[in-house]
Amino acid sequence: MDEFLVWNPEEFDDVKQISIPTANVWVPDILINEFVDVGKSPDIPYVYVGNDGLVRNYKPIQVVTACSLNIYNFPFDVQNCSLTFQSWLHTTKDINITLIRTPDEVKEDKNVFMNQGEWELLHVLSKYKQFSVDSNEYYAEMKFHVVIRRRPLFYTVNLLLPSIFLMVMDIVGFYLPPDSGERVSFKITLLLGYSVFLIIVSDTLPATAIGTPLIGVYFVVCMALLVISLTETVLIVRLVHKQDLQSHVPQWVKHLVLEKATVLLCIRNKKFCPLLSQGSDLPLYKENNMNTAVRCNHHSCEGSRDTGRNLSLGMTVRDTSPPVMDSILHEITSIRQFMEKKDESREIAKEWLKVGYVLDVLLFRVYMVTVLAYTITLGTLWSVWQNA
């Protein structure tokens, strides 16, 4: 309202409105405090002036403004950006800022918002206040709070679901036999795939020095869980192949793992693992599978079946020369030692494999509890944010 641009329409052929070049009319220096770049707008050289002194300047302004973003809940975040209109030079004696429409009308007006993009307009809040630089002069300002919400469907499909699928496959990978090398290669493939996935989505996540979005923490923890899963697999595979050291399982390990842990974990048939009975990977040598047992001395060598010790082969070697007999005896002794050593190696393999299977079940359940606790924590944080 310009009190110097008032006239009586009856004195000027009932003219109530005219257009005047903007350069010929005083225009207030109303600016937006959040400006970070020069405003871009089409050049409209005229303003409308009414006979009551109302000057209408319909020049649209496209501006780049600074907005304090809260990215903790990305991509389910709601942002509140402010636009503050005020005059830098004139006080309320010269310029006073008010709304043409009521605050409720401004709050519910969404017609001018482009609703097909990434953001959804919730409402616009307006607030008027006066502030003073010194005790005698007051300045007026009008602040608009534009509340917008991000549409999370794109980020959910491209970020959250692939990560969840990889974590589910990591859990399924525990059902592979620990004594085979397939589990290690499977876990390494998952870890490599997740690393490539993080490289791809790194440009999608908002980068700030103030804080990290919750989804970024989620990705890091998922990567850590994959590393822990791979480490557990490597340890179990090394344990079930510990028979290479030719050392038996210590008694305290047998007591804790094969007796206490099996009862605690409710594992059936605690003395013999069910998977060991298959014998696919470890063809266990049993002494009763030997068809014959050979007994020799310096003068004779006779063989008998284990089930019939009284049946003699009837072979005497008295006429055989002593050098040949010593050679046969040496070969038989070597075979016997080899079979005993092989049988001992099989027993060691059985013991360590039992321990490996029990520890694998234990670590798998601990891993599942960790994943469950992590899921509950994320759900709790999400609920707290939703309620806030």
TrEMBL record:
Membrane disposition: Multi-pass membrane protein
Catalytic activity field: Ca(2+)(in) = Ca(2+)(out); K(+)(in) = K(+)(out); Na(+)(in) = Na(+)(out); Mg(2+)(in) = Mg(2+)(out)
Subcellular localization: Postsynaptic cell membrane
Gene Ontology molecular function: any one: transmembrane signaling receptor activity
Record keywords: Cell membrane, Disulfide bond, Glycoprotein, Ion channel, Ion transport, Ligand-gated ion channel, Membrane, Postsynaptic cell membrane, Receptor, Signal, Synapse, Transmembrane, Transmembrane helix, Transport
Coiled-coil boundaries: none
Transmembrane segments: 153-176, 188-209, 215-237, 362-385
Occurrences of domain Neurotransmitter-gated ion-channel ligand-binding (ranges): 2-152
Top-level taxon of origin: Eukaryota
GO CC field: postsynaptic membrane
Family classification: Belongs to the ligand-gated ion channel (TC 1.A.9) family. 5-hydroxytryptamine receptor (TC 1.A.9.2) subfamily. HTR3A sub-subfamily.
Annotated function: Forms serotonin (5-hydroxytryptamine/5-HT3)-activated cation-selective channel complexes, which when activated cause fast, depolarizing responses in neurons.
Stored NCBIfam families: LIC
Protein known as: 5-hydroxytryptamine receptor 3A
Source species of the chain: Triplophysa tibetana
